[in-house]
Each structure stands twice: as structure tokens, then as C-alpha cells.
Amino acid sequence: MSDLDSILQPIADAIKKGKKVTFFNGAGISTSAGIPDFRSPESGLYANLAKLNLPFAEAVFDLDFFMENPQPFYTLASELYPGSFAPTKFHQMIKLLQDQNSLSRVYTQNIDTLERLAGVEDKYIVEAHGSFATNHCVQCHSEMDTETLKKDMKENRIPSCRSCEGYVKPDIVFFGEGLPKSFFKTWSKDSKHVEIAIVAGTSLTVQPFAFLPSEVGKKALRILINKEKVGDFKHHPRKSDIIVLNDCDLIAEKLCGLLGIEDKLNELYEKGKSKYSKPETKEELVHDIEEKLKSEANLKQKEPSEEQEETTPKKEDKEEEELTDLVDKLKI
Ligand code: CNA
């Protein structure tokens, strides 16, 4: 048994005994999907924002700054927008724990929706810092649907409100904004009942989220999976804490190995990768096109009946949509 396995064994044992896991996730669980975190010294967003000409790094997510100049946010958003990133092994581990009834809740600071894309159900997820799923005008608060927002972004326009012309912003929480009410409501119910707390890929610097691990009951088993010691694990460690300074995906592999679900993890991960990732090589591209042609051939075999034709979207529309997706993928 490797050193890592023996460090992780108590977690696997607790899960096998029926204890449930509550996750506290940060940007570090998504870096292997290709989404930079904020604070990693060389690869993080804050280290690479020079091109946006910001007065200070956090300005890109600052509400007052956005109201004056939304361009830097939208430049960044066009790079980070969900759709072309696949869930990581860590996300898929969460899904597997859900499937075996070992998941209690997922508190995430991430706005990339990768937990959802991995198949974690809505009832388990608390997106503490919001997500790109909905959008509102910062002036009159009218909602803008995501297709309209994406169309504006694609055509290099700052999405603006069709009623008052104010700037529209996806409902991710900026500095200067409050967290969703659901976050506080769910946490007030959950905090005393956490059995296993896995804190992963976060610098634990953004409040109030950063407080959560310190608020779990003394009987809870707390685990930090991160590249560095952070927050309560650094300043007020508990005797039973497990601290693993390592890569999130590697730890997901190891823990799933100890739980006997490593094959399932690899299978889910490969499936997710082929569904969401941009092709990186010619071979992957050819594979994507072959898959598309296969599914088109299947569609042709199952020509809809007249009755169905009235209710289902037009085939040409669907084909155009699929083709647009493919063209997006080709932009590598
Ligand atoms: P952060 O402050 O950038 O910290 C990330 C932490 O993860 C650091 O301590 C890193 O050392 C660690 N880390 C990075 N990669 C790995 C890895 N592969 N394995 C283990 N540890 C790793 O990010 P936080 O989430 O703590 O900060 C909160 C902000 C970041 C939230 O408001 C988010 O909205 C925001 N954010 C989200 C995303 C996303 O949705 N993917 C991306 C960038 C920023």
C-alpha cells in the first residue's frame, strides 16, 4: 500500500461504513479541465490579466468596475464560458459518490458548472458564487436568456438589456454582491450534520465560503486536498484532520481505487472528455466528425412520423445547430 493510500484509507473506511461526504470545492478542482484558477502563481488568472489592462486584478470581477467597463469581464468570459470544458476526474468522483448514495452536498465556489455536467443532481449542488446559467441587467434587473447573451458575445457585443440598455451580467457573484439566499439557507441546515468534509482546490480566501470548514461539527472528519495548506487547516488544524497536499485528480483516482470504483471513474471521465472537450489533435477531430456522421445516419434511419414532425424541432434547425457546434470545435 502506498503512502497516499494509507493517508486516504480512513476516508474510504468512513464512506464504506455509510458516512456521507460534503464537498467544499474551489477553482483547483477544474484546473485540469483547462480552466485557470485565480491564485496559482504562474498559471492563475490573476497572474495573466495584463492583457486586460485592469487597475487591480480583482477588478475583472468587481461590480462597480463592471458598471463602468464590462469589456475585461467579457473578454475573460468568452474564454471561460461553459461548454467546451469537460468534467475532471474529481468531478466524476463526486458523481460516483452520488450514485452509491455517499453524497450529502456539494458547496462550490466554481462558476464553471462542471459538477452539473458530470451529472451531479441539482438537489446536491449549492453554487455559492452563482453560475453562468442565468443572466440579469445590472440596472433594471430584467432577465436575459442565455442564447441571446451568447449571441451578443459571439458577435463581439457587450450584452445589453433589451428594455433599458443597461449592461447584462451572468448571475455569477461579483465582489460587492451578496451570495445567493439558498447558500445561507442550505448551510444553516447542513452545518451541524456534516460527516465527512472534503475541502478541495481552494485557497479559502473568499468569505464567507472560506469559513465553512471551520463551522463543521467537531465529530466531522475534515480532509483538505490542495496544493498548499490553507485556511482553518493551516491556522487551526484539528487532530483528526487529513491534509493531502497533492493534485485533486490523483487523489480522486486513489480514493476511488480504495473504494473499488476506479474503473467506473475512468470510464465516466473518458466519456465526459469526448462529449465536451475541443479536439486537440487531428485524430480527435476526425473521431468527432465520424461520430457526427454516425449519429446523422442514425437520425436518417429514424425519420419522424408526421405527428412527431409537428412537435419536434425542425431537422434542418437541429443539423444547423450541430454544425455550428462542430465549427466551434474546429476553432482550435
Ligand atoms: P483560488 O484562490 O485560485 O485557489 C485555488 C487553489 O487551488 C490554490 O490554493 C491552488 O494551490 C489550488 N490548486 C490549483 N490547482 C490544483 C490542483 N490541480 N490540485 C489541487 N489543488 C490545486 O480559487 P478559489 O476557488 O479558492 O477562489 C474562489 C474564487 C475563484 C471563486 O469566486 C470562483 O468563482 C473563482 N474561480 C472559479 C473558477 C471556476 O469556476 N473554475 C475559475 C477561476 C476562479
TrEMBL record:
Catalysed transformations (reactions): N(6)-acetyl-L-lysyl-[protein] + NAD(+) + H2O = 2''-O-acetyl-ADP-D-ribose + nicotinamide + L-lysyl-[protein]
GO annotation, cellular component aspect: nucleus
Chain positions recorded as Zn(2+) binding sites: C137, C140, C161, C164
SUPFAM superfamilies per the UniProt record, alphabetical: DHS-like NAD/FAD-binding domain
E.C. designation(s): 2.3.1.286
Enzyme class at the top of the EC tree: transferase
Any Pfam family: SIR2
Protein's name according to its UniProt entry: NAD-dependent protein deacetylase
